[in-house]
């Protein structure tokens, strides 16, 4: 009986061992399968590393180079270095290598930090985009050849320098703006106006805004290759803005902006338009003034005759009013004829200080009648060629305009002075200044703020100034207006407008 139990127990143990053996065989097969998979994966990884164009190194924790792919071996051979580096110490193999790469390898090995940078790698002989990573066994390093890119960057940089130097030589204000509104480049003229602005948004640099302009053309131009012109007013200047898409040397689509200061041209256009209006009035005057003055003279004479009769004395006030209005019409005709004159006759040597002094009694009388003051600040000035009668008229017109602009008790100041090759006449009043709405239109024929004014006084002054090749300028503040007439006195005879 005991023997049978032993046999039974033995069979059970054999069966258990068989089960364990089968289990062990399955585990061995699984391990072999995993090893085969690992070997296949390792082979595939090696095949991948061998097929890539980037040079690759694997270094273990003892700084032994455990693997180098074909690209690394080829680069070492091409640069005349030892290509049998597998199994060698990294520091011996890379003794004369780039310090930046050495530091990155140390950091990756010791601090387990990844790094990526561009540098020249002398061991393999080209500029490389370096990527160095920590691994379980040490570190891995990839070196991508970027020589071609560096050459292209050098070409692009050279082209940028040539292009931007060309933009710098232009007198206009030029900037190149990126899609995100950032200014990539601004020429010297642009930076002289808006300050150092490269890297700033255009809307901040140019107009001082925190957001893009509501009517900005940038989004439109990036999708529509066309050129646009618009006008921009900044401070006291006016600019024409030329905007169009621009392909930079690196292939980037930018927006080219050219700001051209047209303030002086606009002013010249307005002056030309004013002169054309003066010419038009002059032509009208030349055609009708004489024809109108003759019947006016006849009518005035008969009115005086009627006024002298006894049976019309009761209508004296009416006749007097009609005669005054006819005299006013005659004065307007005289102004027309003055505008119609193309050139001044009888140019002689005159002195503007002497003209002011000769008119001083008349002007003082005008000031006294209006309870106002007049101050003369007259410096000695050189003589120049001019028409004394016309310059007397110019001074009287300016002075009487000043008197009419001032309140009781105010002072009108008349100055003469010499400056460089010019003689300056200034008439300064203490009025309330000129309305900004009409300041730019001063001198326009028939423009007047007076109830009974003709609007021809300043037009006549400008015509006289033009015939004397002089410049008439206006400066106005809420405390008064200054009219400056600048006469050229050097070689004046050559400058007279014929």
UniProtKB/TrEMBL annotation:
Listed PROSITE patterns: HIS_KIN
UniProt keyword annotation of Kinase present: yes
Enzyme Commission numbers on file: 2.7.13.3
Name of the top EC class for this enzyme: transferase
Domain of life: Bacteria
Keyword entries, A-Z: ATP-binding, Coiled coil, Kinase, Nucleotide-binding, Phosphoprotein, Transferase, Two-component regulatory system
Coiled-coil region list: 7-51
Catalytic activity: ATP + protein L-histidine = ADP + protein N-phospho-L-histidine
GO molecular function annotation: ATP binding; phosphorelay sensor kinase activity
Keyword NADP: no
Stretches assigned to the Histidine kinase domain: 287-491
UniProt name for this protein: histidine kinase
Species, as recorded: Desulfosporosinus youngiae DSM 17734
Organism placement in taxonomy: Bacteria, Bacillati, Bacillota, Clostridia, Eubacteriales
């Amino acid at each position: 009986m005991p023997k049978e139990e032993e046999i039974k127990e033995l069979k059970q143990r054999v069966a258990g061992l068989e089960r364990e053996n089968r289990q062990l065989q399955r585990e061995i097969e699984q391990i072999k399968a995993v090893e085969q998979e690992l070997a296949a994966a390792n082979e595939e990884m090696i095949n991948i590393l061998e097929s890539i164009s980037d040079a690759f190194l694997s270094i273990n924790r003892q700084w032994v180079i455990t693997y180098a792919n074909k690209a690394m071996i080829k680069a070492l051979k091409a640069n005349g270095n030892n290509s049998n580096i597998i199994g060698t110490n990294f520091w011996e193999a890379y003794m004369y290598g780039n310090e930046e790469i050495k530091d990155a390898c140390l950091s990756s090995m010791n601090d387990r930090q990844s790094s990526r940078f561009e540098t020249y790698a002398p061991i393999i002989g080209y500029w490389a985009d370096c990527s160095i990573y920590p691994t379980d066994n040490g570190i891995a390093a990839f070196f991508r050849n970027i020589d071609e890119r560096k050459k292209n960057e050098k070409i692009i940089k050279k082209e940028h320098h040539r292009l931007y130097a060309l933009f710098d030589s232009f007198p206009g204000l030029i900037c190149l703006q990126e899609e995100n509104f950032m200014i990539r480049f601004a020429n010297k003229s642009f930076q002289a106006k808006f300050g150092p602005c490269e890297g700033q948004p255009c809307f901040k640099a140019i107009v001082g805004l925190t957001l893009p302009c509501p009517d900005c053309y940038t989004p439109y131009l990036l999708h529509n290759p066309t050129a646009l012109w618009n006008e921009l007013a900044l401070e006291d200047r006016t600019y024409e803005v030329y905007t169009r898409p621009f392909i930079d040397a690196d292939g980037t689509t930018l927006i080219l902006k050219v700001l051209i200061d047209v303030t002086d041209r606009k002013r010249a256009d307005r002056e030309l338009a004013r002169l054309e209006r003066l010419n038009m009035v002059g032509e009208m005057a030349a055609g009708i003034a004489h024809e109108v003055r003759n019947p006016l003279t006849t009518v005035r004479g008969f009115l005086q005759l009627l006024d002298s009769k006894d049976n019309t004395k009761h209508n004296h006030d009416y006749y007097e009013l009609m005669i005054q209005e006819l005299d006013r019409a005659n004065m307007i005709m005289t102004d027309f004829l003055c505008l119609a004159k193309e050139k001044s006759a009888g140019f002689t040597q005159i002195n503007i200080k002497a003209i002011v002094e000769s008119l001083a009694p008349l002007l003082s009388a005008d000031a006294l009648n209006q309870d106002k003051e007049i101050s003369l600040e007259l410096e000695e000035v050189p003589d120049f060629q001019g028409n004394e009668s016309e310059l007397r008229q110019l001074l009287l017109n300016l002075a009487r305009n000043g008197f009419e602009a001032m309140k009781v008790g105010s002072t009108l100041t008349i100055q003469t002075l010499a400056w460089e090759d010019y003689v300056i006449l200034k008439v300064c009043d203490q009025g309330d200044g000129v309305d900004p709405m009409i300041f730019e239109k001063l001198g326009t024929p028939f423009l007047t703020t007076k109830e009974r004014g003709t609007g021809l006084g300043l037009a006549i002054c400008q015509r006289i100034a033009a015939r004397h090749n002089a410049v008439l300028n206006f400066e106005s503040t809420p405390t008064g207006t200054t009219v400056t007439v600048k006469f050229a006195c050097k070689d004046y005879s050559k400058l007279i407008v014929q």
